[in-house]
Design a protein that fits this description.
The radius of gyration is 25 Å and the shape is globular. The model is unreliable at 1-6 (pLDDT under 50). The protein has 27 helices and 28 strands. The termini are far apart. Strand 1 and strand 2 form a beta hairpin. It has 4 domains: 6-62, 2-Layer Sandwich (Phosphorylase Kinase, domain 1); 71-134 and 379-452 and 468-568, Rossmann fold, CATH 3.40.50; 145-341 and 579-603, Dimethylsulfoxide Reductase, domain 2 (3-Layer(aba) Sandwich), CATH 3.40.228; 611-740, Beta Barrel (Barwin-like endoglucanases). The strands form 8 sheets. The chain has a 7-stranded mixed β-sheet with strand order 5-4-17-16-15-6-7, with helices on one face. It has a 6-stranded mixed β-sheet with strand order 22-24-23-28-21-25.
């Protein structure tokens, strides 16, 4: 029983860093533990909303499996080490590979949690700059690379991704996204299911286009089932109707848009009648939806991961924006708009890599010959680059906040390849399915041991708001933050010795370069700071941002201290039109029909006549699950088994699949056994597995996750299947055979 009086407790306010919802939390602290956590009703952003993930931050902090000290592997055994010893071992391993094989033998993998970490998000780019590794892999090519490619070609920047202004729209169409589970993806807005209710309350409508009747579809006004991988055909049919019925209106953007006639020509073959059988959406429904979007006072068409990680990912992602343009719903309230972050993100700056112009295919992978796209090769190439002997074979790998042995397509091949490495170093808080193969594991801090202020995520936020969170608990003295770990590893991979590395000097140079990029004199402002690292950088981001004081030039402007003094955050208002300000294409105009994208239309046209012989597999996620490490927290995995194969009754009966019984699921890449859940939430012909499971490997230290192991859906994902325009993996719409396990 808790007998401590609330008055004796220390109250802290904090933003949850686990997803794009950025919920505000109120924590009551007693000594070194959280005794109470609840939503922060006064938070200017979330206003008391929180999802189940935010409530587990105290359990995450206290998780006995979370690593607190570096681990070094000696043979098959692990031992804790000091930080000095761990870095010496890293230097020995990386230096040996450099001496024996050269720089081309070293690579890195950057995981999704990097974007949500205060240090990693701001310093991973500097790690890449210091290391100068020829090839780096990331979770981006299993997630959103088609949006990066389409936005780079349409607007001139790969990270300025427009987001739906859901708080002001009258009509919201969601394709391939499930905000009920994701809380938003490339879309930052709290309580998105509540926003659906508010759209309805003001006379509007929400439509979900998805192969599964998701939790979002249940809350929406209409669910339209669609065959996986046919979204681009559906969107071109929408365009066809808009042109055929003279519903196209560009409004005041007509003078900055190229390619309308090319879109008209491309859509001419994709009549609703032509695509109806392929998409399995009646032609009348397609026509009605096109008319509804055009007639709505404001509308936002939004496509997310189901559109990205499919065979026409880039074309579908681009066409989402095209429909918004054609209906006059781009860059205006209630439509698709660009965020206006209080603190600019490092990713929002022009990429010097493309200073002399954009070019794809600057290099190709050694084994498969996959062409580079925006600096990335398909993640599935990593396994073959490790396993295939020859000049340039990967001998050393640095993984940063990722678990590709679970999350990579054709995961079984990667899991078999990782033990062949001469050097593997992981920046990670867990001994998991990937890091069990490492030689050194360097753990970061818990979310409650470090500050927080979202960086990249606010580029897709529906309001210009921000909230600074100070550390709740102090880290162990002498323990480095993730940014310091990254700088040392980057410098070591770049060929420096430990004795040559001056982390402070490197950070000063980085800060000065970023200040100069914002037109701020670094020599003048550097003496203002006592410390280094991401908090100093955050102050620069705020002060030189659109609402900042620019170090006194704009009296009354914002600084980091403004947020320290405002524990519930600061809200500078809703989105405003920014397209003309941000456009950075060579032509100075939006390229609706860029040649790289439109070259895929003939392949899509051929897809219309391609028969589907087997069941199609799609992925899914749950509200209580974001990344695989969350499966090690009991409150997030207790209850009914969620790692099941969803099958429509019409598909279950002829295959003798019984609810709760094991089924054998087979693709060209592999076979798994998984329990069946028969449900009419799936459209016939499509089955669904969640991602991020498969915690049954030897050598992991994930006590809770092992008891809820599940199966790894990426065993079924063929590594050869990628969207050719973006290198993004195709993990939705995979053909599979399903039969009783016997």
């Amino acid at each position: 029983m808790d007998t401590t009086t609330p008055a004796a407790r220390d109250v802290r306010y904090r933003t949850c860093p686990l997803c794009e919802a950025m919920c505000g939390l109120e924590l009551e602290i007693e000594g070194d533990r959280v005794v109470r956590l609840r939503p922060d009703d006064a938070d200017v952003w979330s206003k008391g909303y929180v999802c189940p993930k935010g409530a587990i931050l105290p359990q995450l902090h206290a998780d006995p499996d979370r690593l607190r000290a570096p681990l070094i592997r000696d043979g098959e055994a692990w031992r804790e080490a000091t930080w000095d010893e761990a870095f010496r071992r890293c230097a020995e391993l990386l230096g040996g590979v450099l001496a024996r094989h050269g720089k081309t033998a070293i690579s890195a993998y950057i995981g999704n949690p990097t974007a949500h970490n205060f240090s990693l998000a701001r310093y991973v780019g500097l790690f890449m700059g210091l290391s100068q590794l020829p090839v780096i892999y990331s979770a981006g090519t299993v997630d959103q690379w088609p949006k990066n490619v389409s936005c780079m070609l349409m607007y001139g920047h790969m990270w300025w991704i427009p987001t739906p202004d859901v708080q002001r729209t009258q009509y919201w169409m969601i394709l391939g996204g499930n905000p009920q589970a994701s809380q938003g993806s490339l879309l930052a807005c709290p309580d998105l299911l509540g926003e659906i209710d508010r759209i309805r309350a003001r006379g509007g409508k929400t439509v979900v286009v998805d192969p599964r009747r998701t939790g979002t579809a249940d809350r929406a006004d209409e669910w339209v089932a669609i065959v996986p991988g046919t979204d681009a055909a559906f969107l071109l049919a929408i365009c066809n109707v808009l042109f055929a019925e003279s519903l196209v209106r560009l409004g005041d953007l007509a003078d900055v848009v190229n390619g309308v006639d090319e879109i008209r020509a491309a859509a001419s073959d994709f009549t609703p009648e032509r695509v109806a059988a392929t998409c399995r959406i009646p032609a009348d429904t397609i026509r009605r939806l096109a008319r509804e979007i055009a007639a709505a006072p404001s509308a936002a068409v939004y496509g997310r991961i189901g559109l990205c990680n499919q065979e026409f990912g880039t074309l579908a992602s681009a066409l989402v924006d095209v429909v918004n343009f054609l209906t006059g719903n781009f860059d205006r309230p209630g439509g698709l708009m660009f965020g206006k972050p209080i603190a600019w993100s490092v990713n929002s700056l022009p990429n010097p890599e493309f200073a002399s112009g954009l070019e794809f295919g600057r290099w190709k992978t050694r084994v498969r010959g996959a062409a580079e796209i925006l600096g990335q090769a398909p993640l599935s190439c990593m396994a073959e680059e490790i396993a295939t002997p020859g000049e340039g074979q990967i001998k050393a790998l640095i993984t940063i906040a990722g678990n590709p042995a679970i999350s990579a397509p054709d995961a079984g091949r990667l899991d078999e390849a990782l033990p062949q490495l001469e050097c593997m170093i992981s920046v990670d808080n867990y001994l998991n399915e990937t890091t069990r193969h490492a030689h050194v594991i360097l753990p970061g801090l818990s979310p409650l041991e470090q500050p927080h202020f979202d960086d990249l995520i606010t580029m897709w936020a529906v309001r210009s708001a921000g909230n600074y969170s100070a550390p709740v608990f102090p880290p162990v003295p002498g323990r480095p933050a993730e940014w310091e770990i990254l700088l040392k590893l980057g410098a070591l991979a770049g060929g420096m010795t430990l004795e040559q590395i001056d982390v402070g000097a490197i950070d000063d140079g980085y800060f000065a370069a970023l200040a100069m990029a914002q037109g701020v004199d670094a020599a003048t402002i550097l003496p203002l700071y006592e410390g280094r690292g991401p908090e100093r950088l955050l102050d620069l981001q705020i002060r030189s941002g659109p609402f900042g004081d620019r170090y006194g030039e704009r009296p009354g402007g914002l600084t980091l201290q403004s947020f320290v003094d405002a524990p519930h955050g600061i809200d500078m208002g809703p989105l405003v039109p920014r397209l003309r300000e941000l456009l950075a294409t060579p032509s100075g105009k939006v390229e609706l029909a860029h040649g790289h994208v439109m070259a895929d239309v003939p392949r899509l046209r051929a897809r219309l006549d391609r028969p589907v012989q087997r069941l199609l597999l799609v992925s899914r996620r749950h509200l209580r699950s974001n990344n695989s490490w969350m499966h090690n927290l009991e409150p997030l995995v207790r209850g009914r088994d969620r790692c099941t194969l969803l099958v429509h009754p019409d598909d279950a009966r002829p295959r003798s699949l019984a609810d709760g019984a094991l089924a054998r699921v087979t693709s060209e890449a592999g076979t798994i056994l998984v329990p069946v859940r028969v449900s009419d939430e799936m459209m016939p012909g499509v089955v669904s597995l969640p991602h991020g499971w498969g915690h049954d490997k030897d050598g992991i230290r994930l006590g809770v996750a092992r008891r809820h192991a599940g199966v790894n859906s990426n065993i079924l994902s063929p590594g050869r299947l990628v969207d050719p325009l973006s290198n993004n993996a195709v993990v939705n719409g995979i053909e599979v055979e399903v039969a009783p396990a016997g």
